Amino acid sequence: MSKSDRFFEIIQLLRRAKRPLLAREMAEELEVSRRTIYRDIATLQAMQTPILGEAGVGYVMRKGYDLPPINFDIDEADAVAVGLSMVARTGDPGLWRAARRASRKLSETSPGTRRLVASSWGVEAAPAIDLSVLRQLIRDERKIRLTYEDAREERTARTVWPLVLIYYVDTAMLVGWCELRRDLRHFRVDRMVDCTPLEDGFAGLGAALVARWEDTRKQDTVSTKEL
Predict the structure, then answer these.
(1) pLDDT (tens digit, 9 = 90+) per residue, 178-215?
(2) CA 63, 64, 67, 70 torsion: positive or negative?
(3) What pLDDT score does 166 carry?
(4) Long-range CB pairs of 51-56, under 8 A, 24+ apart, other chains included
(5) What is the distance between the alpha carbons of residues 176 and 161, in angstroms, rounded to a whole number?
C-alpha cells in the first residue's frame, strides 16, 4: 500500500471509530507495523489533519473533517460496489483486501452502495501460489520458473512470461508465453506446484503478446460481453 493510500485509510478508520483507536489496531487492519502508523499519524498531524491523541491512549479524529468526493454517478457507484463485492470469488487474498479498502472509500461518498450485496461464493480455498506476487510480476514483466502439473498429474518445469490473469468461479488461470512450447499457453493456478520469480524480464514485449492473445485465443479462454 502506498503512503497516500495509508493516509486515506487511517483517516477513514478514525472517522468511523466510536472510540479512540490504538496504533496496534490500525496496524493490524492495514497490515503494517505500529512504527509505520506512528510515523504516518505524525505526518498527518504536521499536515494539519485534526487527529488527537497519543501513543498508548489512542487516537480520534475531530468531528467535521471530510475528504473530497469520488465523482461517480449513482449507477456507476452501484456497478463498482457490486464488482468489488464479487472480488471475493477470485480466491486472491491480496486483491480482496484491496477491494475492501476501495469499498470503504466508495461507501463514504455513496452510502446507498451499502444496500448492495453480492455473494462471495467461488474459489473454495486460496491457491498455493501467491496471486499478489503473480500480479506484480505481470506488471513488472518478469519471467517465472514454473513447475506445472497437468490433468494427467504429469509435471513439467517451464520458463514462462506471465501476461494475463483470468479469474473464473472455481479457479484462476494464467496466460503466458511458454519458452518450452514457444507459444502462448494457459495455466490453471491451482495446478501450479511452484512459481519462482526470475531476474530475467521481457520488458516492452508483453503488450504485443497480449494483443496477439486477444486476437487469437481470448475467446477460447474467457467469454465477455459488450458493455
Answers:
(1) 999 999 999 999 899 999 999 999 999 999 999 999 88
(2) positive
(3) 86
(4) 51/14, 53/20, 55/23, 56/22
(5) 5
Burial (CB count <10 Å: 0-12, 13-18, 19+), residue 153: exposed
Q: Are 189 and 147 in contact (CB under 8 A)?
A: no
DSSP code per residue over 72-124: --HHHHHHHHHHHHHGGGG--HHHHHHHHHHHHHHHHH-GGGGG------S-S
All residues at 6 or more sequence positions from 135 whose CB lies less than 8 Å from its CB, including other chains: 92, 94, 95, 165
98: which residues sit within 8 A by CB, 6+ positions away?
87
| pTM of the model as a whole | 0.58
Q: Which amino acid is at 226?
A: E
Average pLDDT over residues 131-138: 89
The closest alpha carbon to 98, from 31, 21, 27, 11, belongs to: 31
CA distances from 126 to 91, 92, 170 (A): 5, 6, 11
In this structure, are residues 164 and 213 in contact, taking their beta carbons and an 8 Å threshold? yes
- Say which range, 36-40, 74-78, 162-166, 191-195, has the weakest mean pLDDT: 74-78
Secondary structure element (H or E) that encloses residue 218, with its range: helix 218-221
